[in-house]
């Protein structure tokens, strides 16, 4: 690992002040989750209709453990995605893509479209691409590494407007437990009215383009460049990926043989084929994990090589493990005490048919910071939003996507999803969030304009 001093100089002006502020005062994400738990508990006692201690504590405990299946799914997405990106072919591809990046402009031109497209296709894929592409560019180019990872995270922020959007997909799926449009309005909302509607895709593209231009402008001056990315010199490189060691024993032979890979791929490909034949294939969380697993096994070449990659992934992603139960506890408190309903209801009470999507958007900005999982957030806010749309005869698609777009915005201040990216990239989250607060401000305006004007 190369040694280098921590940067003293930073970009001047507002950006430099924000970066310094977050580095000095933002606590570790796990500490932040504990602080938010206390904040939500106090708010529930003061404002929720059922804020008594029994309800609060029961909701907290049940929420902590009810989120564990989801937490395990998230970790599997990151671990299996890491194993894909950690493979020799992908490492070589990333190295080739970043080999000629020598300026901040070139870094932005590579990272922003690559990450945004990957995130639009699937949020888990976007997370992994953001981390590994940042690491490769940061290892080679004289760019500030915190700035670079923040740019990748900003490009990833559009994921809730993409093909893996849990809110849009659930409203398009008849019988889905989270399809509150069907429950309260008796309709399903086709994706052409949500993801592919101009009020969604126009601001989505605008966020990527505008933020790319802004990130070129706010890159620290040459003398202030933090040549980070070098902390990742100890990370595996394509040359470090070799065949599993063989000592001649049958066990070692089986581990290094592609036979195990073939077995799993046959099973996985068989299941996918069966789903396609019966028109049941859907790119949900479980299917994403399976696809990453199959791709990683094929790219790693053997079970032993894949297990080694997963061990490396666990070391990178383990820091975020404890956050999930605490955010589950927060979700449990908000749901059990009625705090989320109170927040959403306060905005709905002053809404009209025309303004409901915007007020839902504003309410979502608040709720997202406390419940950063889109699916869990929609389970909390969705019933009130869709019920209000039914009563006020408001645009249901616009109301639902107002929640999703606010998720994109608030994620730029809420470090829940930044943690896996910075863990895999190898940098402290505080060095990133000072930049993404700018993304928060810009995307806040652009998405609101889309809801109001398009």
UniProtKB/TrEMBL annotation:
Positions of transmembrane segments: 30-51, 63-85, 105-133, 195-218, 251-273, 285-306, 326-351, 358-380, 432-453
PANTHER family referenced in this protein's UniProt entry, alphabetically: SHORT-CHAIN FATTY ACID TRANSPORTER-RELATED
InterPro entries in the record: SCFA_transpt_AtoE
Pfam families: SCFA_trans
Keywords recorded for this protein, A-Z: Membrane, Transmembrane, Transmembrane helix
Organism of provenance: Endobacter medicaginis
Protein name, UniProt field: Short-chain fatty acid transporter
Superkingdom, taxonomy of origin: Bacteria
A Gene Ontology cellular-component term: plasma membrane
Key word Transmembrane helix present: yes
